[in-house]
Amino acid sequence: MCGIVGYIGDKKAYPILIKGLSRLEYRGYDSAGIALLENGTNLNVYKRQGKVIDLTEFVDGHSTEGTVGIGHTRWATHGLPNDVNAHPHCSGDGSIALVHNGIIENYDILKKELIKRGHEFKSETDTEVLVHLIEDIKEKSGVSLVEAVRIALNEVHGAYAIVVVSTEDPDKIIAAKKSSPLVIGMGEDEYYLASDATPIVEYTKNVVYLEDEQIAIIDRKNGLRIISISNKEISPYVQELEMQLEELEKGGYEHFMLKEIYEQPRAIHDSFRGRLDAKSGRVSLGGIKDYEEQIAKADRIIIIACGTSWHAALVAEYYFEDLARIPVEVEYASEFRYRNPIINKNDVVIAISQSGETADTLAALKMAKEQGATLLGIVNVVGSTISRVTDAGSYTHAGPEIGVASTKAFTTQLVVLALMALAIGKRKGTIADKKFQLLLDELESLPEKIEELLKSDDYIRGVAEIYKDAQNALYLGRGTSYPIALEGALKLKEISYIHAEGYPAAEMKHGPIALIDENMPVFVVAAHGEHYEKVVSNIQEVKARKGKIIGIVSKGDTAVKDIADHIIEIPKSDEFIVPILATIPLQLISYHIAVMRGCNVDQPRNLAKSVTVE
Ligand code: F6R
What we know:
36% of the residues lie in helices and 24% in strands. By secondary structure, the protein is of the alpha/beta class. The N and C termini lie close together (10 Å).
């Protein structure tokens, strides 16, 4: 969480920093700030509670001069979101400014020590401790700013991506990272720094991803130098970005979330392009090719993830167990890592993550690595930390997902997981040829089916209108549709703030049925398949208690149609494909309800897209 940016070059830094912060706002949006070095002598710091737009209104009329600067958009961890706790934070003498993404875990001990030594703190943040520590080391030891930063970083525990500027060294920017991401864009005699590549892509495609415990020293004249925090020289590894600028714009849609819902036919096509050829009955994921044998022979697959990605893992459990006959355990990364779990060398651990930066998922992976498991990643953001720490993996190729609520990242995760299970099932001979071919055909027809489904959007908006004032909602499904019930409920609660619960349909009678009355909308995924009749019975149970039924059904359904208050049809398909199709109307329902309730769809309260705190 939190987004950080920096710039040094010949251009005016302010507009670059503000644009960069707007691109990173998905990472946190409770306060924002910038520091500009004007004429190399004045350090102008502006910070404000609220969004980047509030910051720009505040800065209006003040000096925005300077070709060196840093910026921050915050998701509060230590201290309320207010003007004082907003970054940048400055040293006591005001000469050093620093922005930080992460958590300094030993800040309390350091702070007490620094207070004893005469430092005065303005904010409640852990970050302010770091800038005072740097100042203290500088004063005490008379070392350069770079050396003071390096020594300070050896004293802190926790996670950090920082960018530092100082009036004493006005032609330099210093940056460093551990467990929080930082990318450096290499322009012509200019450098851009950011938490991810989105603020950089419009200026340069050449980037360096800083690794853990590395410090970047960017000097206006001498360019980029990288050292480790143990003071070893490191040669920068420059990579080329594949991202396109248009992918970061709304493209005429009112919200990124809606754009991303509508992008799913394209995103899904990209997720299987070059990997799936139904005509010749071939599925092959280049990224895991060398590990296929190992996966096929694995004693167990453990899938770790958080939030929506965890829901994708639950669907994958059906895929791998049914198609490849490998036992699967699905774990919340945040629980798994603190449980002292039993992990064996023959286990394959798969991490699913849109951002590739989720702190708990990353920490769980590292723990599994220490215990000798093979690590695979299913990640959307190219070059992200999870994609780099895993042994192998497959990108989902959904393209940048800016809306905080995950949509296309989820459905493309399901496609990649299905491809993986099919490839392994085929290799092991655990899937019948007929079923294999059917699923390949179905996966290949997904973009077309989703295009078709999206044509019902106006009708779905009409259904949303009826339930927009609900206080609660229940989502039910069985088999592969149960995780979709969870995902539907999560989507509704996170963007419309309506309390919603997802349940396995058969579990309803063990408790949640007590909640049902004439005010309770119950969304039921009831597509044709093995569980259909049982789900119809569950719908009857809800109806008998006057609940309102919105059935997500296969085209041409009659049984649910007769009892439900509303139905939304999805194209007929195999049960393995239903989760991907059934997700889409549930995304649209949540989107429309949130818009009708006047909620900030792309930036829901209290949330951030990339959860880099534990
Ligand atoms: C919900 C949502 C979150 C994320 C979760 C994991 O719409 O987006 O629940 O799924 O924070 O994030 P990643 O997939 O980036 O690890």
